[in-house]
Amino acid sequence: MKYPRRLLAASLALFVVIPAAQAWGPLGHSIVAALAQRHLSPAAEAEVERLLAADHTTQLADVASWPDQIQDDPAQATLWQQTRKLHYINFRGGPGCDYVPPRDCRDGECITAGLAHYVEILKDKSQSDAARLAALKFVVHFAGDIHQPLHAGYRDDLGGNKYQVQFEGKGSNLHKVWDSGMLKTRGLDWQSYTAKLDAEGPAQLPPPITPLDDPYAQWAEESCRLTAAPGFYPDGHKIGQAYVDAELPLAENQLRIAGRRLAEVLNLALEQ
């Protein structure tokens, strides 16, 4: 797939059925970013801070939701249209969630290809700092997106957006509950939540999925398989405390895994 150089900082236009949504919401994205930043190498940390200086910050958490936020900025309308479909992958083979690129990532049009694309820009020092900063923001954000299970689903329900539920006495949908609803039940801000999860130690990573040789494809398969597990879609469309007790630890583990993997990606990309 060819990318015109003028669009390198913008991105692929990826086909996805699911409409735009904030995976994890700002809280979850900030947690993933902050967890990763705690485990950067000195060289990667220095380069992250150098690139972020243009945005007058040193914290990845401050820019982690930017790829979602640009949809509300008229000045970024073109960039939003070019990138709005990068946040997802649809597994079209059913609950087995086996990744078949020609079917699930046609012409490189899915989040796995998007992640690879932006990582390449980020580590390419011949690119402008502006392009690399944009790439950094997308890599941070998409690392969170791909670990939100409903951003890598297989059902024809718009990633849980059409699966209506009752949660905390109000109507909602399963996607929104996973984006932010369950996380907010902890009553923690992102700084406190990050400290809590980091104190649990390094996340245990799932074993490699053979014969996959694409780490981003593996991450997507893992997320898809979570949505296929019994009980993930609540019976009766009602989410009570029992569901939160069962699924919130899973959501938090996904945040921890995303943070660890993001740190590894940034260390490899920025230590050169």
Automatic annotation (TrEMBL):
InterPro entries: PLipase_C/P1_nuclease_dom_sf, S1/P1nuclease. Keywords: Disulfide bond, Endonuclease, Glycoprotein, Hydrolase, Metal-binding, Nuclease, Signal. The keyword Glycoprotein applies. Residues 1-23 form the signal peptide. CDD domains: S1-P1_nuclease. It comes from the Bacteria. The keyword S-adenosyl-L-methionine does not apply. This is S1/P1 nuclease.
